[in-house]
Design brief:
Blueprint: H1 17-36, E1 43-49, E2 56-58, E3 63-66, E4 72-73, E5 78-79, H2 86-94, E6 104-107, E7 111-115, E8 129-136, E9 140-141, E10 149-150, E11 159-160, H3 164-178, H4 184-200
Antiparallel strand pairs: 1-8, 2-7, 3-8, 4-5, 4-8, 6-7, 9-10, 9-11
Length: 231
């Protein structure tokens, strides 16, 4: 209706060409937004347990991409280093000395690969609990069952998880672009809303131009300089 097109009471079940095109473009817009920003609504925590002699652990079926610096071995209570680069992985596999002070990982072929391979002979506990966060590709919940999440809209009753106004503006850009019409104003509106929502999505910490270590306990770092006497 915002584009001046005829109002439709149904889209997914319709055979009308414009409605079908808008549905396809809406699904395209939703998947674009998944990759554009790690929205808090799509941020998922995933846990798995290592197995003796197994280095590969499949990612979830709705895995879109990894949230940086979120991989932890919660049994050993330390972060797992990575994802390491292909060059680093090859060096570890081919070098004469392959002992590392911490476990490392990479994401390859839809799986988390751990180095060194967890084995019962290591000082580390096997099995061990690992946890990490990822952004889900499933930006739609089923209108029939909200527990069912998908990567695209199938029915008119389906509900997007992402911000509806942002999806509308993204759809308007794609629709007018597909028709070969001027989209400059629509792009400006979409970009403005995207920047506002992505900037406020998770909040932000206060940044300092002269950062110093913050300690909640009394220490040499937070006691001001001065003269002290021993009583």
């Amino acid at each position: 209706m915002e584009l001046g097109l005829q109002y439709a009471t149904e889209v997914a079940a319709s055979t009308e060409i414009t409605g079908q095109q808008m549905l396809a473009l809406l699904n395209s817009a939703g998947n674009d937004l998944v990759m554009a920003h790690p929205w808090s609504e799509l941020n998922i925590t995933y846990n798995f347990t290592t197995i003796d002699g197994e280095a590969h652990y499949p990612v979830p079926s709705d895995y879109a991409y990894y949230v940086d610096q979120s991989m932890w071995n919660t049994t050993a209570r330390w972060p797992v280093v990575g994802p390491i680069t292909p060059q680093e992985w090859q060096r570890l596999r081919a070098a004469l000395i392959t002992t590392v002070p911490r476990q490392l990982f990479r994401i390859q072929n839809k799986a988390v690969e751990i180095y060194p391979t967890p084995t019962a002979g290591q000082p580390l506990i096997v099995p061990a609990n690992f946890t990490y966060q990822y952004v889900s590709s499933a930006w739609v919940t089923s209108g029939q069952d909200t527990a069912i999440k998908r990567d695209y809209i199938e029915q008119d009753a389906d509900v997007p998880i992402l911000n509806s106004q942002l999806l509308i503006k993204a759809l308007k850009v794609k629709m007018w672009n597909a028709k070969g019409l001027d989209t400059s104003m629509l792009i400006a509106e979409y970009t403005e809303l995207f920047n506002m929502l992505s900037g406020k999505d998770k909040g932000a910490r206060v940044l300092s131009l002269s950062p110093r270590f913050q300690d909640i306990y009394i220490s040499m770092r937070n006691i001001p300089d001065g003269n002290w006497t021993v009583g």
